Amino acid sequence: MTDLGFKGAVFEERIKHLLKVSNGIVAKRLHIRFDKIEFEREIDVAFVLDKHLFLIECKSFNQPYTVREHAKTNKKIRDAIDQLNRNAEYFEGSLNIVKEQLDLKDTIEIKEIHRVLLTSTTLGEAGKQGNILLTDEASFNGFLLRNSPNLTIIDGNKKTTICVDNEGIYSGKVTAHKMIAFLKRQPLIESMKKRISKILESKGSISYLCCKKTVEDIYIDKGTD
Asked: How far apart are CA 61 and CA 75, in angstroms?
């Protein structure tokens, strides 16, 4: 196993362990292989919650810092989305295999299926991306542990702390409804976006889009302990 493969396997086990110990959610890996036709499909983490099936692709990336690194990471994310769609398409059409590998009764009803790309890298853009729900490990852990993130705004001598959980997503028991709401809206990222303005500026004959904070400083407490 390569170093990257090892990191990926450890990442998957962390997620399955946290799902179990924090909320009693039993998640497993889905895998099917037909050697004769060289066909293989797998889902890293799968579980059923409130009749909703979640298919999660876990990707361990290095945190990007430069423009070039961000571009490479974005390319990796696009490739991971394509991979997840291929794998999910098979299992969505083979729910009997899903139920068997998750040790579920054949009579268990599955109302909806959700494809999730979970990265080890902290993301500045997340939520619903086409037919994929995209989030990062730190945010997902905070949701599972019911640790609501806060946004602290420092503007000169004025310090204001804002709770970004206006919908109770981080309160009470984890449900499919709350998990879907979290994955679609990413409260912390949405709150930060509202405090960043995009301005078209120019220098000579060159025009460019510039992002600027609307406050002096921002401190993020993701509440992941």
From this structure: 11
In single-letter form, the type of residue at position 149 comes to: P
In this model, does residue 219 exceed pLDDT 50? Answer: no
Predicted local confidence at residue 206, as pLDDT: 74
pTM for this entry: 0.79
Query: What average pLDDT does the chain have?
Result: 82
Contact 154, 219 (CB under 8 A): yes
